[in-house]
Design goal:
about 400 residues; alpha+beta; Thiol Ester Dehydrase, Chain A; 2 domains; eleven-stranded antiparallel β-sheet; 15 strands; globular; HotDog_dom_sf
Length: about 400
């Protein structure tokens, strides 16, 4: 965010709107998005309905939603408060990938649940989501995020933002949607998200066929788009790896690891690998007295940061090799993420131990692949992150 943009606004009303939008967005994850939505919808239905009603009334009274539903093809458009500088940006002032993922899901979740369509004398959401999930839940099967260079241009305000969510078709158990988010000054999306969801039985965790009434209502109303498929790939033997344990804050209301947590594991592992490589390079050129030493937990001897990072990764059976990411640098990360593809194969839950593997393939200098695996080697989640090239960085 460019603070000069705000400071140059002599219009106090404009400043008030910026502050209001920031406050509004801070409420979104609690009332209409992310891992908390099923908590309100299923576990406290009446309370959740009241919360959603209050939220709807507050938004409409404070901010013009411009919420519209198109019947065929079926899609929704509305105005979203936009990003929050203190929530959606990293310590370097750049948009944070995981936060952008969560923001995008919140934006789509609002559209999924908002009662903007009137049918048979009652108000419902544009794809009848609450009604569909009455006897089931949904898991993300695969998803793709595409970001434009404008997302990383600090001179372009990211509030408010125009949102379009489209129904993209359905299979026997799955639904595909597409989210497009644009600034107020351009029709080019700064974020595009394609999502493939599978409806599953809450008890057996197995896919459930979409009901006939649902297929009938949406048959032929998809906003034409390619069928999105992203499947897993083979992991090489040489990777940089570390082991993590799933904690409560990594999980969501489906009682499994949240979709974004896996990406956070991978990003943290990448940063750790770059840190270890930088420290190793630094220590090769330093004298022993110049090394970055710290006292170990027993206080009896000193260890270098490199030794501590390496020791942390030696607590598992997997081998870590920083040479597995030969072209990746910290500078490349500052260019911003261009594309992210993820597929989810199975669940993990609180207490599980997972091995996080990252590496680069030949010819993919600007991409990092990741595989999150159970201790038996079975893949739980795999992804590919592509960064903008230096010449594309604004």
């Amino acid at each position: 965010m460019n603070y000069s943009y705000i400071k140059s606004c002599n219009d106090m009303e404009a400043m008030r709107k910026v502050q209001t939008l920031t406050f509004l967005y801070a409420l979104v994850p609690y009332f209409h998005g992310g891992p908390h939505i099923h908590f309100f919808v299923f576990k406290h239905l009446k309370f959740g309905f009241r919360i959603r009603t209050l939220w709807k009334e507050y938004l409409e009274g404070t901010f013009k939603l411009n919420f519209k539903v198109n019947d065929s093809p079926r899609f929704v458009t509305y105005t979203n408060p936009g990003l929050n500088y203190f929530h959606d940006y990293d310590r370097n002032g750049s948009p944070d990938l995981v936060r952008l993922m969560l923001y995008s899901v919140n934006a789509e979740t609002f559209a999924d649940r908002y009662p903007g369509l009137q049918e048979d004398g009652e108000m419902c959401s544009y794809i009848y989501w609450d009604k569909l999930l009455h006897d089931r839940t949904s898991f993300v099967a695969s998803t793709e995020f595409t970001f434009s260079r404008t997302m990383y241009d600090e001179t372009v305000a990211k509030w408010p933002l125009n949102v379009k969510v489209s129904f993209g078709g359905m299979g026997s158990t799955s639904i595909q949607t597409r989210l497009q988010i644009c600034t107020q000054h351009s029709s080019e999306p700064v974020i595009t998200k394609v999502l493939k969801l599978v409806t599953v039985d809450r008890q057996t965790r197995r896919p459930m066929a979409l009901p006939d009434w649902y297929k009938k209502k949406l048959q032929g109303k998809d906003d034409k788009m390619p069928d999105f498929k992203f499947t897993g790939f083979k992991r090489p033997l040489r990777t940089y790896a570390r082991r993590v344990q799933i904690v409560w804050s990594d999980t969501d209301s489906n009682n499994h690891t949240n979709f974004s947590s896996y990406v956070q594991f991978g990003l943290d592992t990448l940063r750790l690998a770059l840190l270890q490589r930088d420290l190793s390079t630094c220590q090769k050129t330093e004298s022993p007295n110049q090394a970055h030493n710290v006292i170990d937990t027993e206080g009896t001897k000193t260890k270098t940061l490199t030794e501590m990072v390496s020791a942390a990764n030696c607590n598992c059976d997997v081998q870590s090799n920083v040479s597995a990411i030969p072209w990746m640098t910290k500078d490349l990360l500052t260019n911003g993420v261009k594309n992210l593809k993820i597929c989810y194969m199975r669940e993990s839950v609180e207490g599980d131990m997972l091995d996080i593997h990252i590496w680069q393939e030949p010819g993919e200098e600007f991409k990092v692949r990741g595989s999150i695996e159970a201790l038996d080697g079975k893949a739980i989640c795999q992804y590919i992150i592509e960064y903008f090239t230096p010449t594309a960085h604004l």
